[in-house]
Amino acid sequence: MPENKPLYTPALVIGSGIAGCAAALTLADRGVEVTLIAAGFDRKEANSWLAQGGIIYKAEQGDPALLEKDLLVAGHRHNNPRAVRWLAGKGPDIAQAVLFDRLNIPFEHAAGPRPEWEWELTREAGHSAPRILYSADHTGSTIMDHLMAAVEGSPNIRILRGMTAVDLLTSHHHTTGMHYRYQLGNMCCGAYVFNEASREVDTILADHTVLATGGVGQLYLHTTNYQGAVGSALSMASRAMVRLENLEYIQFHPTAFFHQNAQRFLITEAIRGEGAILLNAGGERFMRKYDKRLELAPRDIVSQSIVNELLKTGDDCVYLDARGVKHDLVTRFPTIFERCLEYGIDIRNDLIPVVPAAHYFCGGVLTDLSGRTTLERLYAVGECGCTGLHGANRLASSSLLEGLVWGHGAGLDIFRRLNAGHKLAGRLRDRIAPWETPACGDKNDDPALIAQDWASIRNTMWNYVGIMRTQARLYRAFEEMRDLSRHVHDFYHNTPLSKRLVELFHGCQAAYGIIQACLRNNRSLGCHQIKG
After folding, report:
1. Which end of the chain has a smaller Cβ tally under 10 Å, C or N?
2. Residue 361: beta bridge partners?
3. Are 155 and 163 in contact (CB under 8 A)?
């Protein structure tokens, strides 16, 4: 990109997971030129690649009404009923069109001669029937391999890697002169983006912008998320005065691998769906004490039950017993088998030590059924958006389908609007101000300072804003994050920009917003549990 010269694109997609790629491909297949930016250089830097279990499809007989019920029960009926009905009704057809017809994803086939039903379906916690497509225990990676190949092969998609979104551009905040600032309506005009290659901030102007930056897992000390999941969309959207919703509902996956010398990694819910059970250190199947659905209770209930059990026993972890699973564990769960074997655990014979870890963000930037936000020309899809689908707790294997459905829907909506002439006026594009680099002197983004700030954020969120919360813990978190936010804000504005500094600023703002949402909601529900 030429120095200081803005790049213009009809559609800007920020993020390269399933939702962002689905939006980009939907547009590109209809002839729209798309610019897709990714903060990392590795194509696998997105949570979608890490999804193990599967993606909701439909039961053999078809079951939209039953799927609606399961979503509502898992979400404690805090869901948006329209979003639930939309996914249950539209999801299978969009999966058919994109995953089968367009991408030819090799999901597991049903064993034996079954001409009336081609696919092998599994069941996970919270589901009333088997309705989940899978590819061994690397479903996300399999889908993303094919989806990314289609995106990379499209002549209409320009992929820019090493590009970290800094701020959304809006007509009220980033135009020169007063003409657009006096208008009642505000609109998104693109984004300021930090270019790692040039170490400069580029201006990307877009008729329509899609946020697809993923979740917030890296705000916590223990998480299953990839490194870039720091709540960037929350930070950017909040500064643009976009409405956010349900920020207090953060789902903790019940079973992340526990080892003193290992980073947490996911042990898919599908393994419980196939018959694995949870035991405490004494060998007791403790879920009998907490829920009649046992290990197949929704995630929030299982995670809270594990925490209660650990508080009672004083142990560091509980155990997942997969020895009774009827499948060949090596072929059904090859990724888990290999990862556990690295730490001397053979899941065919040994118990798997597990603990809960921050996993999925049920809230985010509020959107409608097309992914539109409260800021004109801005969309949010996937985990960073809040459709209301999940309510207070997410149903297993719904995230990939949500990302696909809303990414596809946003692409269609943008295509229709572009065809109707909804483009940025040339006069507006000419009035967007370039990024102003502050005079920073000799200051630099000292890695020790950034590491300490991240340690403060992650320990505060884990200890005070975790699975079980109290008003006292939340007030302590608010006070500490308020002070840290002030410090990080000053650091950010007086230090030359870098990717790690942008991520720290975004992460601090996102954490502060989540804590405030928790304090505003005194009602214990789903993933937001207030004790005392």
Report:
1. C
2. 250
3. no
- The count of residues in the chain is 532
CA neighbor of 13 nearest in space, from 438, 319, 380: 380
Q: Which of 378, 46, 361, 25 is nearest to 213 (CA)?
A: 46
| Half-sphere exposure in the Cβ direction for 219 (13 Å, CA) | 33
What are the tens digits of pLDDT across the range 146-161? 999 999 999 999 999 9
Return the number of other C-beta atoms located less than 10 Å from residue 113's C-beta.
Answer: 6
**Residue 486: partners with Cβ closer than 8 Å, 6 or more residues away:** none
Backbone angles phi, psi at 155, to 5 degrees: -70, -15
Residue 32's identity, in one-letter code, is V
Would you say the C-alpha torsion 466, 469, 473, 478 has a positive or negative sign? positive
pLDDT of residue 202: 96
Distance CA 126, CA 53 (A): 14
Residue 239 CB neighbours (<10 A): 14
Q: What letter would DSSP give residue 30?
A: T
Task: Write the DSSP string, 3-17.
Answer: TTPPEEEEEEEE--S
Compute the chain's Rg from CA coordinates.
Answer: 23
Beta-bridge mates of residue 416 = none
Nearest-angstrom CA–CA distance, 415 and 529: 41
| pLDDT exceeds cutoff 80 at 130 | yes
Give catalytic residue positions.
299
Could you list the beta-strand ranges (E) of 188-329: 188-195, 200-211, 244-245, 250-257, 277-279, 318-321
Residue 317 has pLDDT above 50, yes or no: yes
Q: At residue 442, does pLDDT exceed 60? A: no
Model confidence at 3: pLDDT above 60:
no
Residue 516 has phi, psi (to 5 degrees) of -65, -40
pTM: 0.92
With contact defined as beta carbons under 8 Å apart, do 68 and 88 qualify?
yes
Instruction: Judge whether 404 and 98 are in contact, CB under 8 Å.
Output: yes
